[in-house]
Amino acid sequence: MVSDGGEGSVYGFRLSSVVPATVTGEDKVHGLSNMDLAMKLHYLKGVYFFRREAVEGLTISDLKEPMFEWLKLYYPTSGRIRRSESGRPMIRCNDGGVRIVEAQCDKSVDEWMAMEDHDIHNCLTYDQVLGPDLAFSPLVFIQLTWFKCGAMSVGLSWAHVLGDVVSASDFINMWGSIMAGHAPPRSLGTNPTSPKPQFHQKLSQKPFSLKMTHPLGDHWLLPGSNHPRMGTRCFHVTLDQLKRLLSAHSGPHAQSQPFQLLSAIMWKTLAKIQGESEPKIVTVCRNSYGERGDGEILKNAMVVSRVEADIGVAEADVSDLAKLIAEKTVCENGMIEETVGGDDGKSDFVVYGANLTFVNLEEVKLFGLEIQGHKPVWASYSIGGVGDEGAFLVLPAQDGDGGRTVTAILPEKQLAGLRRELKDEWGIA
After folding, report:
1. 172 with 156: CB under 8 angstroms?
2. Distance between CA atoms of residues 161 and 43, nearest Å
């Protein structure tokens, strides 16, 4: 299997498995919440670049040895999807294992980073889909890619049904902690049953942030028919650029925040490209650390909201759009959970890309993975299974520099126009 986008190849793939250090047993079940199941067609892809000095002298055994204790802590990640008698999906903690992928790249990290028009996340993370043999599909893949300069990337492919980006990044960060000899600070709590929210009244409105697909059975892959080919592109906003944008486009009564302003810029720019079909309703996702209880280190705890514009988006001032995102969000979590739970989690839905979606990942501990005392020189996340309307992720840029990385996941025909407009009007590349 070779990944080749014309600019360089990743080759020599070797697959193996790692299981928890101690037997968990077939009887233990990790229940999936309605919010977990709302995300089951989505996959998180994280990439971390480490320079040669960070991984020099390490063997594959050195990297895999800490994983046994790591997976003992996160034992549901080694499980497999099963269904209850009612048909509701759950995770059977049967120690099926996490897949480890070893690969080589014929470029250096600097050459790779300098290349245009390549999708880092797809090339350096394993192409994961759950099903059609659902009961045998790993929930997590770790791809270790060695570059010709001696550097290495760590690629995480994570089934979103396990948890959100906070869960995924905390998971990979813990591997580094255990590799460094630090004992886990807490044990993992798991959901023996599938928690179902209690609603005080029947919700009459359907969530705008959720789109039902055709029944997919045991193949959790967004249908390809009538679905445009999606592309991914990372845009870098330096701290100086961010300060200038915030200074120039903050509203008269309130200061915009980076996520709100960058989302507003992307919304307006895409509206200009789409013309009369400009998106009026968008989805805004943010992580809620307060929704995580003690020991809940695997959870989809995002707050999912809708924002509706009653103005022409393409002609609007970005400060007005940023104000909408800051002040006019309507939380839809309750409606989403009720809708997904209506048939006990058996239906299939899309969240990211059901509307144009903006995901706030500014507070994620993106550079928390350390190898031999070294942090990654670059890290980013993307999402697989995004619907037709596309999504933007706003993440920290290099550790401590105050900038942002905006990852765009859009139909490929829109990406070229987006790149041109962002560079010409906003100086973002």
Report:
1. yes
2. 8
Residue in the structure block whose two tokens are 């396990």? 162
Strand partners, 345: none
Query: DSSP class of residue 22?
Result: S
> Residue 89, preceding bond cis, omega within 30 degrees?
no
Phi, psi of 143, rounded to the nearest 5 degrees = -105, 125
Per-residue model confidence as pLDDT tens digits over 61-105? 999 999 999 999 999 999 999 999 999 999 999 999 999 999 999
Q: Taking each helix axis from N to C terminus, what angle separates 239-249 and 318-327, rounded to the nearest 10 degrees?
A: 90
What does the alpha-carbon distance between residue 405 and residue 397 come to, in Å, rounded to a whole number? 5
Point out the residues of the chain with pLDDT beneath 70.
Answer: 1-8, 26, 116-118, 184-204, 224-227, 251-255, 289-295
Identify whether 132 is preceded by a cis peptide bond (ω within 30 of 0): yes
For residue 164, which amino acid is it?
Answer: D
Of 367, 327, 27, 314, give the one whose Cα is nearest residue 172: 367
Residue 426 is classified by DSSP as I
At 47 the three-state DSSP class reads: strand
Helix (H, G, I), strand (E, B) or coil at 212: strand
Distances (CA, A) of 363 to 246, 271, 382, 406, 429: 19, 27, 16, 14, 23
Residues in the chain: 429
Longest dimension (CA), the chain: 61
Local structure of 400: helix, strand or coil: coil
- What is the DSSP code (8-state) at residue 374? B
